[in-house]
Give the backbone structure.
Amino acid sequence: MTKKKHLYEVDLMRCFFMFGVVLNHVASTFAAALGNKATPAGRFSVSTHLILHFPRFGFMFITGLVLFLGYWGRPKKQNWPVFWKKRYIGSGIPYLFWNGLFLAFLLLTSGSFSWNKWLTGWLEAISKGNQFYFSPPSCPLPSSCFWTTPSEPLMP
């Protein structure tokens, strides 16, 4: 099998999406600092922030494209268990580990660590993928913070 040529177009797309991620984080910072979203400036800030969510879809596209092109032209008989094992070891195990570590850190710094809270939060985080680890220490678990109204207490 011959070595496939490097696709510089994919590198260009990666750069474009990386700049999109940086812009999204900058827009997030301004949207959070603005506070009142009911003003015209607040609406513009939120709209800009929402428009700048395209990089996640772009990175998913690039991942699929690179995987597809990497396996294109190989023999039809693919060893699927080896393929999936490689993917799960390469991304699944680090995902589980870092979720556990960040959640433990968040709970420890908030002073509310318990193994029950950690396990419940970890299982919720890995099953839903909705953990935001830069939340304030008063919000150590995803279900206790993100869908509450201001009149509700943050912690049960």
